[in-house]
Amino acid sequence: KAGVTQTPRYLIKTRGQQVTLSCSPISGHRSVSWYQQTPGQGLQFLFEYFSETQRNKGNFPGRFSGRQFSNSRSEMNVSTLELGDSALYLCASSFSGSETDTQYFGPGTRLTVL
Amino acid sequence: AQKVTQAQTEISVVEKEDVTLDCVYETRDTTYYLFWYKQPPSGELVFLIRRNSFDEQNEISGRYSWNFQKSTSSFNFTITASQVVDSAVYFCALRGGGSTLGRLYFGRGTQLTVWP
After folding, report:
1. Using the beta-carbon criterion (under 8 Å), do B102 and A108 form an inter-chain contact?
2. What is the DSSP string of chain A?
3. pLDDT of chain A, 114 residues: tens digit per residue
4. Is any Cβ of chain B less than 8 angstroms from the Cβ of A68?
5. Best interface-test mutation with A: which of B104, B106, B111 has the largest number of A CBs within 10 A?
């Protein structure tokens, strides 16, 4: 079974631009969660999607948004990039996102904002 | 509120030494789940183990073992006879009840370096 895939793996953008990251979950998994990892803040939860609906959201500004498609693939978008958005963005999938599920992570997208 | 504390920021050991990574958690939920993940330099978080709050049995998997103690809210991870390939950042994580759908609360991680 293929694991979680994320594209692209690396991105370099400039301040003010926007970016879209993609995540394909493990086959059969319907929940996708996104996390931001930085040296200063560690791993922080962005949002979770299940069946194309956002069910949970972390404490991030509205510049961070996401969506999920009918095939469970998910995208996250960051508009008006700031230097502080430079981070490793990790996507995780699980069967249903319930408390009993285990989340499996992708390799991440490393975003650098110049 | 959910919180995970990994007090050890960095640990260095020499190959074949045993090493224990500490994890202390806080939650008001009666049902919760604890996890350990490994993050090698490649960046991907690799799942190691999941325990629920009702199962306090210790678990051993090869050179890895986990000690879960509700009385001290701890879920420690021991690597026996460490190897260079064990070098990575290790994260402890917590998931609570229904209001935290799809969300893990992570500790800050412990960077383990195993020297040959």
Report:
1. no
2. ----EEE-SEEEE-TT--EEEEEEPPTT--EEEEEEEETTTEEEEEEEEETTEEEEE-S--TTEEEEE-TTS-EEEEE-S--GGG-EEEEEEEESS--TTPPPEE---EEEEE-
3. 689 999 999 999 999 999 999 999 999 999 999 999 999 999 999 999 999 999 999 999 999 999 999 999 999 999 999 999 999 999 999 998 777 889 999 999 999 999
4. no
5. B104
